[in-house]
Write a structure and sequence with these properties.
38% of the residues lie in helices and 14% in strands. It contains 15 helices and 14 strands. The chain starts with a helix and ends with a helix. The structure holds ligand KE4.
Amino acid sequence: MIYKRSSALFAEAQKVIPGGVNSPVRAFKAVGGDPIFVKEAKGAYLYDEDGNRLIDYINSWGPMILGHAHAPVVDAVIDKTKKGTSFGMPTEIETEIASLAISMVPNIDKIRFVNSGTEACMSAVRLARGYTGKDKIIKFAGCYHGHSDSFLIQAGSGAVTFGSPNSPGVTKGTAQDTLLATYNDLDHVASIIDSNKGEIACIIIEPVAGNMGCIPPAKGFLEGLRSLCDTHDILLIFDEVMTGFRLAKGGAQELLGVNADIVTFGKVIGGGLPVGAFAARSEIMNHLAPLGPVYQAGTLSGNPLAMAAGLAMLTELNEKKEIFKSLADKTEYLHKGIARVLNEENITHTINRVGSMISVHFSADPVIDFASAATGNNDTFKKFFHGMLENGIYIAPSAFETWFITEALTYEDLDETIEAVQKVAKTL
Ligand code: KE4
């Protein structure tokens, strides 16, 4: 594969954009080499600036669940654009997508739209603090809830990739209110609560972790968190920015059968345009301005183009419920194929999978939390990443990320991917 034009574009980008990218994980720092510049994309395929076709397993980090340039989404945005792009005034379409989302997701009566997953999670925590009158939050090492100060404590995703899970610029005052727990360790959570009696506003968690690779909740873990929150008057926030509208119509709450108090969304809900959202029962949401005292706002929140993309996306996911089983079946097929060929080549690995989220870890032990995710052999991962790229397969450029399956993938694409793994495995 030739990447001359991507490298030339990267050199230009670095002159005017820090690191040449607008989000660090795109810079290939974790795997080395220059990032790929995309020219366009359609369905399951990326077409880069050097004319290479790549089968895409990132799908914009989750949103493109129906494939790139999906016609109903594109047409909805084009139609909306012709009527104006932003008003800073309420529009009917915001009510339409709000009503649809509420009909799809359990335990929410009202939803507020923002412009990113970070904004959704940041606002959800402020709402929890305002509603409970308590300051402290519990997050989990390796979970990533966006780049708001309170979350950049042992954060996953790009933060861990760049060795800055505790970012400079986050004040001690902020950090002291973020308590860090171990994913899948209920006793640890209980001990933190006991040491901070009456001070904890919320526990925020990725119900299926996706920012240290894909890590499923251990049996009973989420149920245990639910019970601890009920006992100690703590709000449970499910960060469903990745899992929302992906694992099921109703996200992880539906798939796993555990109720959150506040749910955050991003990615799929915007159909590829900038949309985040947070939602809860009315008793909680009515604390938000202009109804209640908890302030939250945004010039482009509920932007009509973004709402049009999101509404087209959610409408299709709501009407074609078989999509979620099809996505899970394709992911299981991929899992079994990759495991078969890596085992044939005696490559030590473990694969985690939930629904249409999957990750490959080059470690012998089960990957159940941040520490075990960090035991993966990163040199092997780097070789694997670049080998797959050479074979026209684009996977996450970091071991601390998840692959996102799109419905646009065919079983022929999956076989091509498995064959590529087989070829690359021989070089590891
Ligand atoms: P954004 O602000 O990037 O829209 O969402 C933040 C966020 C919140 N919660 C979860 C569970 C997330 O996965 C994310 C963002 N995910 C990363 C991928 N691991 C986005 C990619 C990037 O940072 O460029």
